[in-house]
């Protein structure tokens, strides 16, 4: 009985080692992933870079040799098992995987870090060198170490920051912190101090993690994490809530990503130096429109960089700040910026979008306010067309799918 138990234990150890260091067999190009090997691959590698493609898609065929070349370069740069894998999924054959990852266009490039799918897709340059540099960037240490508390005084006040104070690097709490930082490095800046550099901020043996908001752009205050630092999911949820704000900035770099979310935009166009309007706008959204966050994307935009949408609204830099809705069909201007400070005005603006009032009034003038019979005369004017929908996924870059194609 004892011999059998030893053999059984030996077998279990072998299986566990295989699982922890599992990496698909070496071959040239990206690794084909199927329903049989994808879960093992995702769970046992720090980073998995996925190419979802279809054989019939022209853009997929253009990308295939480039992605295969990048896989070879990455394998040469990072030969150790468990670091990184470039994998490819044939979505026609692996329809369940395509559905699981909500693939709506080909090719789609996604990242999985430590078994967790990143919300942000890869949307950068499509060359073997660019893919390699991207992977190198992803595998960099996401946390910057400070040597004294004075170093924290020079941090960028326009960035959202997570700061950890630990006794030493080999604490299990720090390992959890590092993994969360790796997954959320695109959303926040992460900083850490050890030993003497951090001892003034926490009792010995009791590490602390603190959120520092972008104080130059918001009225938020510092907040300390009160949960378990050994619980990855609990810490990740808390940091994600802090690092992904209710009101986000739209740029030309993230416009495609935001547009693809499919929600109308409520946008504050501001002068680059006008931080007070940004602060007040964010505070009002958080106080009055939290229940609308599932229906609309709250955004701020540099009015100088986004001069084209302003021109469509008949406005210029001299008119900033202004607020507008982009419904992906039309754009609608909030009549007076100062009305933002009147409770209920912004909420009513959104309600007028939902019930069609904004569109009606562009064509027929204000809705009747009395019981008198009024004749609506359609005007030749129409609300400005959406400009941000043109920043969505391009037909010259993807094969776009309808929902019933997968």
From TrEMBL:
Q: Name one GO cellular component term.
A: endoplasmic reticulum membrane
* BP GO terms, sorted: protein folding
GO MF terms listed in the record are: protein disulfide isomerase activity
The region annotated as signal peptide is none
Note the superkingdom of the native organism. Answer: Eukaryota
Q: Where is the Thioredoxin domain?
A: 12-140
Q: Name one Pfam family in it.
A: Thioredoxin_6
Q: Which InterPro entries match?
A: ERP44, ERp44_PDI_b_1, ERp44_PDI_b_2, Thioredoxin-like_sf, Thioredoxin_domain
Q: How is this protein named in the record?
A: Thioredoxin domain-containing protein
- Which species is the source of this protein? Stomoxys calcitrans (Stable fly)
The taxonomy runs: Eukaryota, Metazoa, Ecdysozoa, Arthropoda, Hexapoda
Q: Which gene produces this protein?
A: 106087420
């Amino acid at each position: 009985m004892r011999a059998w138990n030893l053999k059984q234990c030996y077998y279990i150890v072998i299986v566990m080692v295989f699982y922890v260091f599992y990496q698909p067999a070496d071959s040239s190009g990206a690794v084909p992933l199927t329903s049989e090997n994808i879960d093992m691959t995702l769970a046992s590698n720090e980073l998995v870079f996925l190419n979802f493609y279809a054989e019939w898609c022209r853009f997929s065929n253009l990308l295939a040799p480039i992605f295969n070349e990048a896989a070879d370069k990455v394998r040469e740069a990072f030969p150790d098992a468990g670091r990184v894998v470039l994998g490819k999924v044939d979505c026609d054959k692996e329809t369940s995987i395509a559905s699981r990852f909500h693939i709506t266009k080909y090719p789609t490039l996604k990242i999985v870090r430590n078994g967790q799918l990143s919300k942000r897709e890869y949307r950068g340059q499509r060359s073997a060198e660019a893919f390699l540099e991207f992977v190198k960037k992803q595998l960099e240490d996401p946390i910057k170490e400070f040597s004294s508390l004075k170093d924290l005084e020079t941090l960028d006040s326009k960035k959202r920051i997570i700061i950890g104070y630990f006794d030493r690097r080999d604490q299990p709490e720090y390992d959890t912190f590092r993994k969360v930082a790796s997954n959320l490095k695109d959303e926040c800046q992460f900083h850490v101090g050890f030993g003497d550099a951090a001892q003034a901020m926490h009792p010995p043996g009791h590490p602390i993690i603190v959120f520092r908001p972008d104080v130059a752009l918001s009225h938020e205050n510092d907040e300390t994490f009160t949960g378990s630092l050994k619980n990855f999911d609990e810490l990740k949820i808390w940091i994600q809530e802090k690092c992904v704000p209710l009101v986000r900035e739209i740029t030309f770099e993230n416009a495609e990503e935001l547009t693809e979310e499919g929600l109308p935009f409520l946008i504050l166009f501001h002068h680059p130096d006008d931080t007070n309007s940004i602060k007040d706008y964010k505070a009002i959204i958080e106080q009055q429109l939290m229940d609308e966050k599932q229906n609309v994307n709250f955004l701020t935009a540099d009015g100088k960089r986004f001069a084209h949408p302003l021109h469509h609204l008949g406005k210029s830099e001299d008119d900033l700040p202004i607020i507008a809705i982009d419904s992906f069909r039309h754009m609608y201007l909030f009549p007076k910026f100062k009305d933002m400070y009147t409770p209920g005005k912004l909420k009513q603006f959104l309600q007028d979008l939902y019930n069609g009032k904004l569109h009606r009034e562009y064509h027929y003038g204000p809705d009747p306010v009395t019981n008198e019979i009024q004749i609506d005369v359609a005007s030749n004017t129409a609300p400005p067309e959406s400009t941000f929908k043109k920043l969505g996924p391009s037909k010259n870059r993807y094969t776009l799918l309808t929902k019933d194609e997968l």
